[in-house]
Amino acid sequence: MSLTLTEARARSAQVTDVSYDIDLDLRDHAGETFGSTTTLTFTTAAPSTFVELTDARDLVVSVDGRAVEAAYDGRRITLEGLPVGTPVSVRVEARLPYVSDGDGMHRMTDPVDGETYVSAYLSLDIAQRVFACFDQPDVKATMAVAVSADPRWQVIGNGRVTSSEDGRWVFATTPRLCPSLFVVCAGPWHSVTWEHAGLPFGWHARASLAAELDRDADELRRTTDDCFDHYATLFDEPYPFDSYDQLFGPGHNWGAMETPGCVTYRDELLPRGRVTDDQRSRRATVIAHEMAHMWFGNLVTMRWWEDTWLNESFADYMGYRVAAEGAGFGGTLVVHEATRKPAAYVADERRSTHPVAPAPEDVPDVDSAFTNFDSISYAKGNSCLRQLVTWLGDDDFLTGVNAHLTRHRFGNATLDDLVAALDAASPRDVLGWAEAWLRRTGFDTIAVRRGDDQVPVLVREGVRPHRFSVSALDADGALVATRVVDLADEEVALTGWAGLAVVPNSQGETFARLRLDATSADVVARRLGSVEDELTRTVLWAHAFDEVRTRALPVSGFLDLVERHLPGEPRPALVSAVLDRALGPVLTRSTPAAEAPAVVDRVAAACRSALAATADDQVVIALTRGLAATSRDASALLGWLAAGRTDAGVDLDPGLRWSTVARLARLGALDEAGIEAERQRDQTFAGELGAARALAARPSAEAKAAAWATMSAPDVSNRVFEAAAQGLWDPERVGLCTAYVDAYLADSPAICERRGQGFSLVVGRNAFPAVQLSPAQRQRLADSLASGSVPTVLSRLWNDQLDDLG
Ligand SMILES: [Zn+2]
Predict the structure, then answer these.
(1) How many angstroms separate the CA atoms of 143 and 234, rounded?
(2) Phi and psi of 786, rounded to 5°?
(3) Which of 471, 586, 693, 745 could be 482's S-S partner, Cβ–Cβ 3.0 to 4.6 Å?
């Protein structure tokens, strides 16, 4: 059972003045387990408490130097008879298993060079798989850390290394942190280091990714420095830690993790071959996001997990803003509007939706908290903060934020604390705003209406105050004017704009559904691609995503828009978002199985005509990826493999090459020997994943059976499970997948029970069948959920999937 709110509150009231002395022994990195010895020093107000430690073997516990027989249930060590009111020292020595699923001390051996990496990236409930601790956010403690490992390695952690001799690394004691912010990464990392603002900085990656890290090092370093300097202009508090390392780690379950002093990223963010402008911009956004957490999350930490959103919304908002303002990556908001915000609207209409800021009691335990790392907490919260900044003004917003950070530095705080600080900094009623925007679920609709005089009128259907831009377009989609309006109970007549098309929220400042009148909808349908402002164009595409999902627009109508307006679209991120939408939810959720091949063909045709209409190399790459996923022309695709480039002249970098291989396998045009030949060409971890995906994609019963067998292996890694699932599910050949949809529904609860939260995310979200489920399968999914036997994290994800099936 994961920690409950009640237990956490009792324990944080009871134990104080906590510090950890953590000693990890990674020398036997080929064995089953690593050594973990932790001395917890604290003062307790009652004689008994517990510390978390998962799956410990050879456990030895002593209190103030005396060995004790402590009860242990596999997750918690119960401590009794502790001295009250004076510092006590509890030493916990154990061996803990390495893991292959990212949740714990993740071990990965690189097939390129046989080098091994062991890293603990952490997040909720993972610290307890690495060291004995009070695993909750509001018990913060200093950490003195030492690690023994292969002397050839480099070990990176939260604090600076103060000594490293004979395979033993000792780190500077950290400021007060909560356990989930601990990090250690050990292996023969390739590093780029420098000094900035008087601090040591570094970027690190696996040795086999040295060329990729060196390729991007200048930009990664510049982005880091620029973001760092920009935060220094926004925040009064100085950067709170003693170093700033960043590491691309294998097997990471998240995009990245904001661990102080050593931020970790999934190493897919360091792509082999080509890195596109879109990828560079998205990566800069993640860098800025994680850095924002140094203040928001790490310096000031939430009290309990109900304020996950406060962390994530703030970092998400700052990530898009600072990557653009501070590091010069223009157009980051296009990605937010085109990919993240649409996901938030979907999430906000599921049964599982929750207020951006739930009450603590609505997050009764850590497993429930885990499921709130969702589109509400990130993208909707980000959108609400953007609306708040629009409504308050930037100066008052930053004044309030800074007062909050200074008041609670190295401590814990809640939403009420932040709202109080903002309220004091602004003449507006921030408390009322927070009630309307943060304490309620759902969103408003902004409708355009028009009377006989043809003057457009904006009407709000809902309860929230909005401030946003509205743009007027002529019949050709050209911008006539933009103005900022406040919309609440009273409708707003846009006088002077009679007869013009209007786009409310044309810069995306608010979070609301749009409903256009016939005049505006007609101009959008005909001229969407001609709308010059990229953010307005993105808002209109997102509106189309919403309409096709809610069946206000039929799939054929959506594909008409794609065919008409994808050609000529200059923004690669928007091209990718439209293709992802068409080949994701539109194909697998909104399209009957029998019509799936026709949808795929229409998308392929749109990619071809768009390719013929552009010379922009970044757009060409985005469209080529779309074509590689949809083309039925096996001989052309085989020609790409033979030439190492497409007929449009795009080099097949490893990612594009494996996508092409997967499509050929799916078409039955590449057999096991052909896939093996590709794997021989690319003997990397990514090559293994590409091969697993392609093998699973072959359109035969045997191939599908083998894919499911791969996914069912007891120690299958998170990445292999996901890659095989990508190949296995084939929306164009649902019949071949039927037996494995059934097997997936039957077996997943036990898999998730065994593997934990991070793996559940892979199973329930990334690997959920990307095919139309039959009515019987939907019923089975619903029955399984109703039985109560599905573990918490999987249950939440499956309920969401059930809602999305429509
Ligand atoms: Zn974050």
Answers:
(1) 29
(2) -70, -25
(3) 471
CA of 293 to the centre of ligand 1 (A): 7
Cα(315) to centroid of ligand 1, in Å? 6
The predicted pLDDT at position 298 comes to 93
Residue 33 reports pLDDT greater than 90? yes
Q: How far is CA 668 from the centre of its chain?
A: 34
Alpha-carbon gap, residue 540 to 521, rounded angstroms = 10
Coarse DSSP helix, strand, coil percentages of the chain, rounded to the nearest 5 percent: 45, 20, 30
| Residue 292 CA to ligand 1 centre (angstroms) | 8
The whole-angstrom separation of Cα 729 and Cα 250 is 25
* Residue 512, SS3 per DSSP: strand
Please give the full DSSP string across 572-628, using - where no structure is assigned.
HHHHHHHHHHIIIIIHHTSS-GGGHHHHHHHHHHHHHHHHHT---HHHHHHHHHHHH
Cα separation, 457 vs 492, in Å, equals 6
- Measured from the Cβ of residue 501, the count of other Cβ atoms closer than 10 Å reads 27
Query: 10 C-alpha vs ligand 1 centroid, how far in Å?
Result: 27
- Residue 258 Cα to ligand 1 midpoint, Å, equals 7
For residue 404, the one-letter residue type is H
Gap between the Cα atoms of 463 and 440, Å rounded:
10
- Counted residue by residue, the chain has a size of 806
Tokens representing residue 333 in the block: 């908001």
User: How far away, in angstroms, is 370 Cα from ligand 1 center?
Assistant: 13
Task: Work out the pLDDT band at 370, boundaries 50, 70, 90.
Answer: confident
How many helices (H) and strands (E) in the chain? 28, 29
Catalytic pick among 290, 306, 722, 732? 290
534-549 vs 341-348: helix axis angle to the nearest 10? 30
Contact 315, 295 (CB under 8 A): no
What percent of the chain shows pLDDT beyond 70? 100
In whole angstroms, what is the distance from residue 578 CA to residue 780 CA? 32
State both tokens at 292: 């924002």
Alpha helices (H) in 149-276, listed in sequence order: 210-234
> How do residues 171-206 score in pLDDT, each as one tens digit?
999 999 999 999 999 999 999 999 999 999 999 999
Where b means 16+ CB within 10 Å and e means fewer, 699-735 reads: eeeebbebbbebbeeeebbbbbbbbbbbbbbbbbbbe
State yes or no: is 732 an active-site residue: no
For residue 196, the cross-strand partners are 199
Report which secondary-structure segment, H or E, holds 520: helix 518-527
Site of tokens 């091209």: 575
Structure confidence at residue 680 (pLDDT):
97
The Cα 504–Cα 491 span in angstroms is 13
Gyration radius of the chain's alpha carbons? 27
Q: What's the rounded Cα separation, in Å, for the pair 723 and 692?
A: 6
Q: Which residues of 27-47 are buried (b: 16+ CB within 10 A; e: fewer)?
A: bebeeebbbbbbbbbbbbeee
272 token code pair: 């082999």
The pLDDT of residue 1 is above 80: no
Each residue of 136-174: b (16+ CB within 10 Å) or e? Answer: bbbbbbbbbbbbbbbeebbbbbbbebeebeeebbbbbbb
Q: How far is CA 378 from CA 281, 363, 529, in A?
A: 18, 17, 29
Q: Hey, what are 622's tokens?
A: 């985005």
Q: What is the pLDDT of residues 470-490, one digit of tens each?
A: 999 999 999 999 999 999 999
Element (DSSP H or E) covering residue 91:
strand 87-99
Nearest CA to 551 among 589, 583, 597, 577?
589
Q: How far apart are CA 537 and CA 524, in angstroms?
A: 9
Distance of CA 56 from the midpoint of ligand 1 (Å): 30
Centre of ligand 1 to C-alpha 256, Å, is: 7
